[in-house]
TrEMBL record, chain B:
Organism of derivation: Thermococcus litoralis
Entry-linked Pfam families: LrgB
One GO cellular component term: membrane
Taxonomic placement: Archaea, Methanobacteriati, Methanobacteriota, Thermococci, Thermococcales
Record-given protein name: CidB/LrgB family autolysis modulator
Sorted UniProt keywords: Membrane, Transmembrane, Transmembrane helix
Amino acid sequence: MPMYKGLVIIFGFLFIGETLSEIFNLPIPGNVIGMVLLTFAFLFNIIKVEDVEREAEFFIKNMSVMFIPPGVGIISYWGLIKSQAVPIFGALIMSFALTLILTAKFVELLSGGKE
Amino acid sequence: MNSIGLFLTIAVFYLFSKLYEKKRAFYLNPVMLSIITIASILHLTGIKYETYMKSAKILSFFLGPAVVSLAIPLYKQRETIKGYSRQIFVGIAFGGTLAILSAFYVAKLLGGSEEVLLSIAPKSITTAIAIGVSEKIGGIPSLTAVLVILTGIFGNAIGIEMLNAFKIKDRVARGLAMGVTSHGLGTARIILNDELSGAVSGLAMALNGVFTSLILPYLIELLQ
């Protein structure tokens, strides 16, 4: 039953992250805290990558389908989107173009324009 | 009827994934098409979102362990971080902040309501993290989810063409900008274009998720 070891680690770190987020009333989601802590646990050899790799890859590969239920919730906000279409789509497009190009230019300057 | 939501989600996603396997076009993004199709089905049949969610919520529950699992690709990219640490860390601080501020202020300028501003602010980070952040800061997680996916689709569709049009050749700069702007969907495209850009993009996506969830709540307080 090798699967359970990986699941215990993943859900254990999720639980720790959520608990820390709640106890200290942190604005960071518990799952992000769990991810950061697990990364450090790998770096300091507390947890072996091989022990969680398969289970983690299963979750990551199947992540797309998990976005659908919250996405469908958009139907409850149809009125809001219609009345706010200009700010929503204007900001979406402008922010996309600005962030992509300015960030790329900025990093290129940092590297000194090599490659 | 309890299983309707779960069945519908998996069945519709399966069909669109099959279609996407045949024709890999950005406008055939299976997640986006599934959301539109299921929302239309619920609307036409009169099935309530709450009824749909009864069993469908089990899928979104797994976003928790999925985000924790992102520690694996993050850890595996530690060599990339070492090689380009300055560009990566300074670039993420710059790009991550710019993504939030530009979305927030353009929306505000165009008359966006407060819930829209809060929902659009985390739009450049990976969906799983963005949903949690939106919830924490008082946005509408469902709206955030859709805006995040749309931002990803833009990057997937025209990100490379835009970087080319602005003559950005630096491979690290291209990957970083793509990952910070268009998370997983942008990464999926640029990794086919160049391996180094793809690795930096994936890394930038993960680190920007952490960076944004750290600073956004405080930034929002300052902005309001």
